[in-house]
Amino acid sequence: MSAGESCEPGGNHCITCGDDGVPMTVVALDLERRLALCAHEDGRHETVETALVDPVALGDTLLVHAGTALTHLEATA
After folding, report:
1. What is the reported pTM?
2. How many domains does the chain have?
3. Most exposed among 4, 15, 24, 46, judged by the fewest C-beta atoms under 10 Å?
4. 69: Cβ–Cβ under 8 A, 6 or more apart, which residues?
């Protein structure tokens, strides 16, 4: 799933909770606990569970939903 897609065909939100996936950048890692500190585009930070998308590296951009990274997003030039 990419940043513009949703889990509901034709929809813009998750059919379970109504939230959107948010692109976030990894700024710190806790590999043992499979967690990352990620930054929103506006500078806010959030702890994100990364088990579904391992391996994760500093600077990776992830699509995050409900505190869980769902996929890696490709960098755009």
Report:
1. 0.73
2. 1
3. 4
4. 24, 36, 38, 48, 49, 50, 52, 53, 56, 62, 63
